[in-house]
Amino acid sequence: MSSPSLSFEISSSEAYPHDSRFAPRVAKLLIRKVAIDTPGLLACTSRGVVPHLSRDNVIRTKGIRWIHVPFETFLEHKPPVPTLQPQQGQSPKINSFLRFPEDEYVLSMSLRDPADRREMPANTNVYVTANCIRGVKKVTPSDWRSYMISCNPDIIFSLSDIPFTTPPYSQKRLTKSIERSALWLAHMLHSGPDSTSTPSNVFVQMVGGASAPARTTFAESLVEVLHGKEADAIQPRKCLDEGVAGYAFDMVPLRLAIEGVQGLSPNHSTIVSLIQASLLVLPPNKPRLVTSARGPHEMLLLIREVGIDLFDTYWAQRAANIGVALDFSFPAHIVTGKRDLGHNLYDTKYTRDFTSMMGNHDKDSPGICLCAACSPYSTPSPEILRHSSMDEPDKHRDSSDSPNPPYTKAFLHHLLHTHEMSAHSLLALHNITVMDAFFAGIRGLISHNSASIFEAEIRRFFETYMEDTDDMSRMEPNVFERAEKAWGEVELLRGKGRIARETERVKAESAVAANEVLKKEMEEKGAEGAVNVPLASNGEVMM
Amino acid sequence: MVLAHGETVLPTFMPVATQAAIKGLTPEQVESLGISLILNNTYHLNLRPGVDVLKVAGGAHLFEGWRHNMLTDSGGFQLVSLSKFTTITEEGAVFSSPFNGESTILTPEESISIQHAIGADIIMQLDDVVPSLLQGPRVEEAMKRSIRWLDRCIQQHESAGRKDAQNLFAIVQGGLDPNLRDKCLDGMLERKDRVSGYAIGGLSGGEEKDVFWKIIKQCADRLPEDRPRYAMGIGFAEDLLVCVALGIDMADCVFPTRTARFGVALTHTGPINLKLGKHAKDFDPIDSTCPCPTCKDGTSRALLHHIVTHETTAAHALTIHNIVFQAQVMGRAREAIIAGTFPDYLLSFFAGYFGDRGYPEWCVAALRSVNVDLLQNSKTPMVPGGGAKWEYSDAA
């Protein structure tokens, strides 16, 4: 069973020439009945589900229209369980298994989780190493192809050789990476004995590490016209690129590779030039997808400098995991001074803050957040479950079209400190919605304005919000680092040994506090020339 | 039962939102499942977020976003569950902080004040709770003190002017001794005009099921018809239905939501432990007739097996299912009661649930006391013991 084809239509814009290679563009990606406006987002999943969001909450989060599913956790079983899913009508097996209807969601699959930065055993000519709960598994191109034909997702990421051994990578290693990835792409595009079993929407992860020449060589191998046996293998296509529906750029291995070479955290221009090196020889009218981008600043630069169309929500979902409610928009809020990208809701300053997670903005700023936490809607009465004919949930309720009051920062603060899971559900659906609105703002601006206005708004965004970077020169931890630390402290308050740990901590804190008091007294008394150190009856200094 | 935040039909089961939330779910989700009454915990809310924050927020309903009915317990149960740190005096319960030894005292007046700040529609008296299995003079002391504390709670409740806004329930104590229970009932029934309902406390602490049902029956038989009767800490389906048969209107328990987080789905034929390998390739939903979002969406046991204990999403999916299961058990009871077919409902539920291994003796005895005979026309044998069902691995 083949996947339906993907169409990608770039709109013409006054601001940017239609056919320029590296410029922002607004487009519409269409698969079956699902239209994704770009620049836009795809949601990350873990073990096949959106973290913290049950199906009904996924439905409430309108920004989730594309989900990306790493396959590797299913390697626990042989054969992998999704391949055993009984066919349900015309639905692809993976959609039936994960319960994402194929006419409501775009579903893409890669073997590995693009955000997983852990070191892995080396790939070889015949297999890629992948992670599952039973340890490292070896996956061959044939395995991958058969899994993907069985699962039949809308978009398949071709098997690629991306090293997760310690960088830097030698010339030889990069050459292998390029050659294997191209070979495995050909393997995926090969028409099966029954030609309907050729997967039709294949995205390729652009390899070549931190070497621009290597990256360009890989891209050239995609557009190179093949001959002889190689050509036969992919017929009726003349080159690999004819079978490629889109290009993916994984920030995690890219950053690791750059760090391995330069020894420093990568800067934007290095990243941009490496991505451009991949796209230089490739047709500009195919979707460009970036995984694990590190926040809206990086995303804006990649949109402006390269023309990236799609970003996964890894960064926003991670912020939700550590208790940060994102609070930014594009165009940026009109505020004085520079602010964080979000709120660390562990901070005690929120104990009595009864504003919504995006509250407190002046009236000229863009509208309120429409997520299910900031604008919660009750289920309409006819849809509420009734368990007996006596149940009348609509009695005494005022049914109106307006939402219920928003969930407050104070309540989220309480949920985080009491280790309640619903904190993360509310944060996840909020943060994804913030990202969705961010991209809508970008699309609106590109479509209707001159390039100079877009540039100006990008500058203003950078001036308004502090970027989430690894900047070592920064003296203070940023909001994400503070949140992660607070999250760790709440975790430590639980589990075996917690009473002993907490007792130690409280003792230490009160000793420090008592010391401060004593110091103050000594300073005050010291001014008069006499120090009166309080003594206990046994002559010891009192604390 | 019509309360300030709407109507709740009885008999019903109340899910527990200990720390101002049903774990993992939003109030919109809980409401969509047809739940109109949940329980919040006074001891925990007093600790976090604390009475001050709740007062500024305008009460727990506004703080946590729950728009329907709420019941708060008084903190009495924590006397038992946190008993390592507790000393009971006539004045109140002295809890000492496990971290720095600081003590806080919870008096009946204080408990009622906190419950006023929380603003629940039904509030509970502070009772002197002892473990169910405790014997000796302490049990009688606790029972008598509970009556005295009831008076202090009533006093505080009325003098604060909250009598019309919030409903105070009394809690019958007396351990497992029918004489003590009788004495407690005598005392508390005298206060009937000043309480809105009665709970039966001090059970569900590991006592023999055969003793448990007799105490429930004894109390339910004497409690007034025009006051709701609330069995505290009852959650297993078979226990709930026996209690309903004996005259109980409401019950609460952490069991269905807690067991969901541990990977266990409740069904009309018994619990399913989705962590077991036997479910890894089962592509059917937990129960294809269940109306909950998890089952209606077709979420398979195989998918749940893959995510259970690894993803919070699994906890949410199972919590949603188990809450609906409990609501269905009680909803079908209501339907049968209206239709006059409640005995038939009991027979068919118990046959479906225990048909494969035998009816627990205590269930047979308890239902016989209200003229329902599980063994009539049934080939299913009777078995001794508590009968609580569990699913084990085939490999064991």
From TrEMBL, chain B:
Catalytic activity: guanosine(34) in tRNA + queuine = queuosine(34) in tRNA + guanine
GO biological process, one term: tRNA modification
Sorted UniProt keywords: Cytoplasm, Glycosyltransferase, Metal-binding, Transferase, tRNA processing, Zinc
InterPro entries (alphabetical): TGT, TGT-like_sf, tRNA_ribo_trans-like
Family statement: Belongs to the queuine tRNA-ribosyltransferase family.
Function recorded in the entry: Catalytic subunit of the queuine tRNA-ribosyltransferase (TGT) that catalyzes the base-exchange of a guanine (G) residue with queuine (Q) at position 34 (anticodon wobble position) in tRNAs with GU(N) anticodons (tRNA-Asp, -Asn, -His and -Tyr), resulting in the hypermodified nucleoside queuosine (7-(((4,5-cis-dihydroxy-2-cyclopenten-1-yl)amino)methyl)-7-deazaguanosine). Catalysis occurs through a double-displacement mechanism. The nucleophile active site attacks the C1' of nucleotide 34 to detach the guanine base from the RNA, forming a covalent enzyme-RNA intermediate.
HAMAP family for the chain: Q_tRNA_Tgt
Protein name: Queuine tRNA-ribosyltransferase catalytic subunit 1
Lineage: Eukaryota, Fungi, Dikarya, Basidiomycota, Agaricomycotina
